[in-house]
């Protein structure tokens, strides 16, 4: 009986060993089963009110659970790493020229200095390019299409206004740049620009002027940076309101040029914007032209003043001094250019000549021989 019990116990242990060995053999050599899609997903709590399911894809970052951080902050942590160099052009191919589009919006004409031939504008300058290092998968970051960041954290083109007449250059580091998920960067910043403007004062104060603003890259040639104008924003270039202003802006045109300089053999492209303006001359008509015509008319009436009154010479001298004051005022407003004489200056000079002639006639009329000569003629 005891031997039978022993044999039964040994048989049970033997069967358990066989079962354990078969199970281990199946787990080792059987093909792996496909994991269910639910095991490939993990839930990450970013906000307290919502959550996002992220797949185990290399495009999506690894995020800690219950991390209280916005998608924009996580995206900036991914993009602005130690490997990003703000001094290198954001292209993968070094031989590729980076296209940079420039456009402007005119808001105000602050000042026009005719004597020094300078003009001061208030602009909004827009630059657009593609940064190939600043791209991301929108689905990994809550479908965020763009982010805002300081311009000094990314590469920016070294564009300058070559005909700048101000003592200081524009400080552009205090504004943000808008970066889209495909890498396109839009950088907008305001600027008060003073430029040289060659004035044509021939028809002053009924003149029209064309002042230029020339953008160029200070160090990059056309082989590294292709500067051009963004035609898609051409319709939104003039926000200038002509009400209560001296100048009326007709239009803004642009032209792309390529020039070679003495320093380098490569061509340097530039974009030149031309602002076409017309002077609103009502102020000058009422304050200069109308008084000048009135003085001319009074000087003509002084010719018929009787000699016996004794005030004929005094009247003509007063009129002459008034015309001299007008000529001095016009001369202070206009540049000392020998190319043209202003229309207003010609008018005042003509009035001055007539007053001088009439004054001579007034002095000679009392003379007997002049009266005889005048009657004989």
Question: Could you describe the 3D structure shown?
Answer:
The chain has helices at 2-29, 71-79, 282-302, 312-333, 343-364, 368-376; strands at residues 41-44, 52-55, 98-113, 118-130, 146-150, 159-161, 176-180, 184-196, 208-217, 225-229, 247-259, 268-279. Helix 3 (282-302) packs antiparallel against helix 4 and helix 3 (282-302) runs parallel beside helix 5. Mean pLDDT is 75; it is low at 31-58. It contains 6 helices and 12 strands. Strand 1 (41-44) and strand 2 form a beta hairpin. The longest helix is centred in the N-terminal third of the chain and has 28 residues, at 2-29. The termini are far apart. Strands 5-7-8-4-3-10 form a 6-stranded mixed beta sheet, with no helix packed on it. The protein is rod-shaped. It has 377 residues and is of the alpha+beta class.
Q: What's the topology here?
A:
Layout: H1 2-29, E1 41-44, E2 52-55, H2 71-79, E3 98-113, E4 118-130, E5 146-150, E6 159-161, E7 176-180, E8 184-196, E9 208-217, E10 225-229, E11 247-259, E12 268-279, H3 282-302, H4 312-333, H5 343-364, H6 368-376
Parallel strand pairs: 3-10
Antiparallel strand pairs: 1-2, 3-4, 4-8, 5-7, 6-9, 7-8, 9-12, 11-12
Helix pairs in contact: 3-4, 3-5, 4-5
């Amino acid at each position: 009986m005891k031997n039978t019990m022993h044999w039964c116990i040994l048989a049970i242990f033997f069967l358990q060993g066989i079962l354990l060995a078969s199970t281990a053999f199946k787990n080792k050599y059987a093909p792996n089963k496909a994991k269910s899609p639910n095991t490939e997903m993990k839930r990450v709590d970013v906000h307290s009110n919502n959550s996002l399911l992220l797949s185990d894809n290399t495009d999506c970052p690894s995020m800690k659970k219950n991390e209280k951080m916005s998608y924009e902050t996580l995206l900036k942590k991914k993009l602005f790493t130690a490997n990003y160099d703000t001094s290198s052009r954001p292209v993968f191919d070094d031989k590729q020229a980076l296209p940079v589009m420039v456009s402007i919006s005119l808001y105000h004409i602050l000042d026009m200095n005719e004597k020094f031939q300078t003009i001061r504008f208030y602009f909004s300058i827009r630059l657009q390019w593609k940064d190939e290092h600043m791209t991301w998968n929108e689905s990994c970051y809550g479908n965020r299409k763009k982010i805002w960041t300081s311009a000094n954290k990314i590469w920016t083109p070294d564009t300058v206004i070559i005909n700048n007449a101000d003592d200081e250059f524009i400080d552009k580091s205090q504004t943000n740049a808008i970066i889209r998920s495909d890498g396109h960067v839009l950088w907008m910043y305001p600027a008060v620009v003073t430029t040289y403007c060659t004035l044509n004062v021939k028809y002053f104060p009924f003149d029209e002027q064309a002042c230029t603003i020339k953008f160029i890259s200070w160090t990059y040639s056309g082989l590294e940076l292709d500067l051009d104008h963004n035609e898609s924003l051409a319709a939104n270039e003039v926000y200038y309101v002509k009400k209560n202003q001296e100048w009326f802006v007709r239009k803004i045109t642009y032209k792309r040029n390529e020039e070679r300089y003495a320093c380098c053999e490569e061509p340097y492209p530039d974009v030149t914007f031309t602002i076409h303006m017309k002077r609103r001359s009502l102020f000058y008509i009422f304050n200069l032209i109308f008084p000048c015509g009135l003085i001319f008319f009074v000087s003509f009436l002084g010719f018929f003043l009787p000699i016996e009154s004794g005030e004929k010479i005094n009247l003509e001298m007063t009129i002459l001094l008034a015309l001299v004051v007008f000529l001095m005022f016009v001369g202070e407003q206009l540049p000392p250019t020998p190319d043209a004489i202003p229309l207003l200056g010609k008018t005042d000079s003509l009035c001055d000549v007539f007053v001088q002639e009439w004054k001579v006639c007034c002095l000679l009329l009392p003379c007997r021989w002049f009266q005889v000569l005048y009657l004989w003629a």
